[in-house]
Amino acid sequence: MQRRLAVIMAFACLSILASPSHGQAAETAVPKVDYRLRTLPNGLKVFSIRDPSTANVAVQMWYGVGSKNDPAGRSGFAHLFEHLMFKGTRDMPPEFFDRLTEDVGGANNASTNDDYTNYFETAPANHLETLLWAEAERLGGLVVDEADFKSERAVVEEELRQRVLADPYGRLYALDIPEASYVLHPYHRPGIGSIADLDASTLADVRAFHAVYYRPDNVSLIVAGDFDPAQLDAWVDKYFGPISRPVGAIPQVTAVEPARSGPRLIDAYGPNVPLPAVVLTFAGPDAASPDATALQVLDAILSTGKSSRLYQSLVYRQQLAETVLSDAELRRQPGLFAVGAVMAGGKTPDQGEAALRAELKRLREEPVTTAELTAARNQLIADVLRGRETAEGRGFELGGAIVLEGDASRVNSDIAELRAITPADLQRAARRYLVDDRRVTIRYRPESERPAGQADVLVQDSPQVAAAPLQPPAVIPVVQTLPPAQRQPPPKPGPTVAPVPPKAVERALANGLRVIVAKTSDLPIVTAELTIKDGAASDPAGLAGLAGVTAALLPQGSTTRSASEIATQVEALGGALSADAGYDSSQISLSGLSDTLAQALPILADLARHPAFAQDELDRLKTQKRDELTVALQEPGTLARLVMARLVFAEGPYGHPSSGSPASLERITRAAVVQQYQRLYRPDNAVLVLTGDITPDAGFALAEQAFGDWARPTQAPPKPATGGAVPGGRVIVVDLPGTGQAAVAVGAASIARLDPAYYRVAVANGVLGGGYSARLNAEIRVKRGLSYGAGSVMEARRGEGVFEASVQTKNESADEVVGLLLEQIQRLGAEQASSEELAARKASLIGEFGRTADTGAGLAGLLTQDAIYGVDLSEIGRYAAQVEAVDPGQVRAAALELADPGRLDVVVVGDAKLFLDALKRRFPKLEVIEAGALNLDSASLRGPAGG
User: Is the pLDDT confidence value at 469 over 90?
Assistant: First the structure.
């Protein structure tokens, strides 16, 4: 399930670029989304976007049914049904859909929105006919039996626990906001539903829902990528043409939300809420409204980037909030506009509400500046262009226009409305919709602050909600999966379409800076990533988080620009800055518009070369990071990862949290930051990668202009810190009472990136937990319904890497899941993978790698990683061959090392009273630590903070 928290603006084809030096917008033409539409006699609309430059094809099915169509007493049903569409059909057994996508190097997924449900796949282009056949099978012959229904319902309930009940703010965003903001319209009911409603659903409900809504005249098929148009038409006619259109009309939601008559205040509570929050919502227009664009621009002005009004006011100047948000949540029917904040430590929701209302009052009373409007436009356009890098992304843009705006042509006209918006239009929209006495205020606080005896005022299925009518036909045919001998086999793939990877070109400047450039796109967007070849592994003892703080301070002021000036200048150019540090590297990245790179790159260089490290900025950043940690330490999955790092590496360079701890952040001084910077930030210890719409010659010229006179110190660069793994075998339980799920992890040290066994270990990990069809997910989610997802990662680093298998499950299942993880890890070394399984997992690895390299930002990340670890850049072009060369024996040998029981550490974070007794029977020597007493500064995980 996806919750739309971003603008519905990603349907544009013209770029408006601004230059601060000229003070007005310039326009750069971008080709339109060139789609073709044909409609079959049964009502199926077929949209196609041909792109012969890619070796992939995307197939998407956009159904006109979403959470607002959930039947009475069945909240969450459309989303549950989305999951069931991946079960069997007349000719496909359950889970076979993944064999046709992931196992050939593709990917598939789906999402449920309030107004629609979409299913989408990307695969090598020669598998197009197979994908069309499979989607037609799901539409015309879905099969769900009682066992599959109950198993997938359990998976959905685990998704609810993970996304909503285990997340400190999950209840606020997923449940409280919709329930508080609507009274009558079905948008009131959360799309994820409730455990009670999910438990009440039946197999008969599934069949009725499919019969009513899953019909050819209620879906748009989008095909984007490399295909022959005539062949596509023939295949669509062959597979979709025979599906008949039902006689009855498609039920429509006609409920109209009553106008708000005054302000409303709601107090909501949740367990493990580390910082209070406040959200204000207002009734908004529908996505096709003439006012929609104005609200999207207001959204960007309020919360996009560090120059935004809410960030500057609540986070930066007043230091009231840890996080701010705004959201123009526009739907097919009238939607919402929301603003909100998670408060900083010691601040109250009342303070947040007052500050938010003050900013909204400014919008109503004062026109926004031309500069703000220009910056918002450019940010929106940059987002649009980043989404359009792939065929799949262009399909999403078109689908959004169809299902939300009701008109596919809006994909090529929405941008004109953005160009025409004026400050007066924005003020008029603010006055019309953001009316102070029509707000709903939600104050969200810890359960411990609820007054005694006070019940929840929000009711998920209140009697007045107008549930969508559901009138299935009197007779619903029950389809059964045919015996294997009678099934229609899927079409065979066509000739392979070989991808052509972008070519990376490199050059070293005279000062030692390594510059790598790869032209990846004709879209006017670029990514620039400057990476220092050392990071948190070099944090001095007791100063965990120093590398991260040093990197994060770079955009917070140079010797010539303040933090606010930096944010304003970069974001006016359509750019976005980010800076952080991992264990082996520190990065400052810029993504934006290629036409303004010549202006933006010198700003990036200024930050890297002339940071101010002002004391007030350091103090502000440390406060923000402590608040971020306060939130993170209430998330079971995050906490499990932090504890696992300590178990595997103890006091070694990779053992401490790269983000720091509350105690270590307190000890970081400006002197320590300056010393860290002076030691590591130098051109001969850095790599600059440029990707996107830029040629190598242009990239090298810009790099020389911005960095060519960066002086190289006379002394040699420092040697990075690495490694430090310790013997494993510890079992740690972190007790986090009240959390809605347990996080379970099993891990050990792994190999370095330059280890000759790298590809063998990568394939072994792929077999174990590298995707939906891998063993862990197949065993824990698909077979048993114990989790929303289970997997493993093999993170190879400069020194020893880390292997970790992880899963989140309901607290009561923690012990069972620990056993399943250990069993599958050990089985990997005990049994040799079959040739079929190995071929599928290799294809999945290669496909995932290819999709990453298909975007400028993704390729920049791959090139940077290879550069900092000393891997030859040509390795990217050989990735597929290296993976294919791994044989079953090598996989088993690699797995034997991973599966050594004596090396494995186990971490379980959850509500211990619900699983501890069972886990003690499995591990009599396990250690229990209360979450509040956990000391991440110590390898023992105990003792006083900072010990």
Answer: no
Q: Among all chains, which residue has been given the structure tokens 């294809």?
A: 843
The edge-to-edge listing of strands for the beta sheet with 336-343 is: 264-270, 440-446, 277-283, 336-343, 321-329
- 508-520 pLDDT, tens digit per residue, is 999 999 999 999 9
Residue 899: its pLDDT value, please? 67
CA separation for the pair 749, 118 (Å, rounded): 40
Which two three-digit tokens encode residue 786? 């114990």
Structure tokens at 350: 């009342």
CA 115 to CA 187: how far, in whole Å? 9
The model's pLDDT over 70-126, given as tens digits with 9 standing for 90+, comes to 998 899 999 999 999 999 999 999 989 999 999 999 999 999 999 999 999 999 999
Q: Is residue 559 part of a domain?
A: yes
Both 195 and 74 in a single domain?
yes
Q: How far apart are CA 572 and CA 87, in angstroms?
A: 48
pLDDT above 90 for 679: yes
CB atoms within 10 A of CB 752: 16
Question: Which domain CATH number covers 652?
Answer: 3.30.830.10
The dihedral of CA 48, 53, 57, 58: what is its sign? negative
Domain that holds residue 643: 504-707
| pTM tops 0.90 | yes
Look up residue 753 and give its two tokens: 């990136």
Count of C-beta atoms within a 10 Å radius of residue 32 = 13
d(CA 423, CA 435) in angstroms, rounded, equals 18
Q: Give the tokens for residue 483.
A: 């015996």
3-state SS of 646-714 is HHHHCCCCCCCCCCCCHHHHHHCCHHHHHHHHHHHCCHHHEEEEEEECCCHHHHHHHHHHHHCCCCCCC
SS3 (DSSP) at 355: helix
304-325: pLDDT as tens digits: 999 999 999 999 999 999 999 9
Same domain as 272, residue 228: no
> Does 529 map to a domain?
yes
The pLDDT of residue 245: 94
Rounded to whole angstroms, how far apart are CA atoms 714 and 190?
61
The pLDDT score that the predictor gives to residue 945 is 53
CB proximity list for 420: less than 8 A, separation 6 or greater: none
CA distance 217 to 43: 4
Long-range Cβ contact pairs of 403-406 (< 8 A, separation 24 or more): 403/62, 403/64, 403/113, 403/115, 403/116, 403/118, 403/220, 403/332, 404/8, 404/115, 404/116, 404/287, 404/288, 404/330, 404/331, 404/332, 405/8, 405/11, 405/287, 405/288, 406/288, 406/332
d(CA 386, CA 521): 10
Q: How many CB atoms lie within 10 A of CB 753?
A: 18
- Which residue among 195, 221, 247 closes a domain? 247
Tokens of 852: 């990453």
Q: What is the pLDDT of residue 175?
A: 95
CB 464 within 8 A of CB 184: yes
